[in-house]
Each structure stands twice: as C-alpha cells, then as structure tokens.
Amino acid sequence: xxxxxxxxxxxxxxxxxxxxxxxxxxxxxxxxxxxxxxxxxxxxxxxxxxxxxxxxxxxxxxxxxxxxxxxxxxxxxxxxxxxxxxxxxxxxxxxxxxxxxxxxxxxxxxxxxxxxxxxxxxxxxxxxxxxxxxxxxxxxxxxxxxxxxxxxxxxxxxxxxxxxxxxxxxxxxxxxxxxxxxxxxxxxxxxxxxxxxxxxxxx
Length: 203
Description:
The protein is built from 11 helices and no strands. By secondary structure, it is mainly alpha-helical.
C-alpha cells in the first residue's frame, strides 16, 4: 500500500525525470493522502473532535496545505462524507456479476487501498448533525442508486438488503477484524460471500 511518504518519494523521482509533470502528480498524491487521513479519522472520532492538525499529521502534510487544497475543514469533510465516487466504482460491473464485484471491491479497498467504500456510514451516530448528512448521502448515492440500477419489483428493499449484507462483511473484516476471515484469500471469500449479495439483487 502506498503511504504519503512513499508517494512523495515517488513524486520526487518523477520530478527528476520529467520536471513538468511531477508537481501535478505530487499535488494529486497529497490530496489523496489528505482524503484518506480524513476518512480514517472520521471512522474513529466525532466530526467535532477532528482537527485539521490531526488530519495533517496523519497525512504527512501541513495544515496550511489542507487549506490550500480544500479551503476549510467543512469543505474537506463534505468530500469525505460523499459516497458518489465510491459508488461509481462499487457499482461498475454488469448486473449478473455485480455481487462478486461489490464484495471484491470492498475487500480490496480495505486491504490494498486503505479505504472501504461504504463502511464509514456505520459511524454516522458519532457525528451529530454531520451524521445526518452522511446518512442522507449514503441513502441517495448508494442505496437509491443501486435500486435504480437493479430495477424491478421491490428494488429499494433488495438494494438495502444487498448493501446491508455488504456492510456486515465490511464490519467483520475491517472493524471486528475476524482472524479467520482476514487469513482467508480474497478469492475464497468472494466465492463464498458474493452469492449472498447477488441473491438480493435479483427480483
């Protein structure tokens, strides 16, 4: 997994090779590190308790750089509380293979990208009014979007059941950190678990 320090080291190498392209790449790596840090903290602390300094320290950048890229704390967390780009990736598969794709995407997000696409909704109760925003975004950007995608009778219920099934795996893998689950190859988990998600997608 790429860390902020390794990303910056890679960017410096790229700068030496292609001076014109490196600054843009460095900025993109820094923005990604900031968003990952904010998502990590949002999943563990109340929104009101998270400082820009805490985000900066975890991301390996300065607090003024966060202000430069995102404007202020509210603007940064508005990005973190949106599921739109996550839903784009989560639902990017044919319907007949969507359950497998969703399970794999969730597991690879946790193990390879350091960011679960949906799990932060579990922490909405920590965040007061911001939690209401998180819930509303999740409802419209994930559950309702999936319902539109699958269509047919009971699409809303089937979508929520499919997402519930996916969240259960995310909690057990990423929060409870089940030892047997985490010791099992992702392919094996997908083979066992994806049919349960796919079953909810069918009319």
